[in-house]
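Our platform keeps sequence and structure together, in a single record for each protein. Because each token names a local backbone shape, the row as a whole describes the fold. One such record is reproduced below, unchanged from the form in which we store it:
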Amino acid sequence: MDFNNSNDSARKPNGRRISVAPMMDWTDRHCRLFHRQITQHTWLYTEMVTTGALLHGDVPRHLNFNDEEHPVALQLGGSEPADLAQSARLGEQWGYDEINLNCGCPSERVQKGAFGACLMNEAPLVADCVKAMRDAVQIDVTVKHRIGIDDVTSYDFVRDFIGTVAEAGCSTFIVHGRNAILKGLSPKENREIPPLRYEVVYQLKKDFPNLEIILNGGIKTIEEIDTHLQHVDGVMLGREAYHNPYLMAEFDARYYGDAKPARSRTDVLEAMIPYMHEQLKLYGSSEKGGGLRLNSMTRHMLGLMTGLPHARSFRQTLSDAKKLAQGRPELVLEALQRMQPHAA
């Protein structure tokens, strides 16, 4: 396994038929490498990275990723066309397959920076941002957004937003089927309280048949995915992909026609052990004065046994502070053994 980013060895990206949403504090490089052990073709996204973090911070820390993650997209947060263009150029240089602009995050931090969901009120500016990034890179530039802001529920609002941004050359829109409430709701509440209106996203595909429209928001089952794919080009999963990652074991065969058998949960864990050893070797275990904790990798695996008997034993073992402090990647197999013979 090659755990280092390499432009030369990157696989050609597959279609965005199924993807995993960018999720702050969750979809880091360890999470994405773990997900890649379950599905080879599902499109993966980074956490949102702000232009300020790239232009004034530690670029390798924010952009380094594992070659096995392809196809993988870099999501950017920002509202200055020149800064976004420079950041997109960095993303392309580091080997990402796509640059995605965040126009859907409703957090206070994002609002203070005047980007994220706020940008839906400024479609011409978003168009300028998209054009600047498209002029700067050869890879796809896409936009992720909501269907409305606050109490604006008119279909015309999101239709006109997409129409304006599409004129700048964006052909792929990832649409979260809820409004973003900028005042009074937390980001978590914004994922749960505003009602889902999938029919709005379906209508967008009808009105823009030549654009790639991907649906996001509240999707949890294979049956729901199949239903949505009758109306849109792709489906993006969020929290369900994180809390129940083995759901993705069906994706390669079902949605990409890959006849290769899916890895078992046991095989997934065994495949992660060399990676964890390599990461601890590169960055040093925090237990020995280094900068990496074993928990920073194992925490993403807690949901692997969701739905199986004794899954709680698996989670408890991987959450045991004393065992984690030993810094042994083989702890994942010990967690598996605690629930045997139930693990598949």
Summary: Strands lie at 18-20, 43-45, 49-50, 72-77, 98-103, 140-149, 172-180, 212-216, 234-237. Residues 265-283 form the longest helix (19 residues). The first strand starts at residue 18 and ends at 20. Residues 55 and 87 are 7 Å apart (CA to CA).
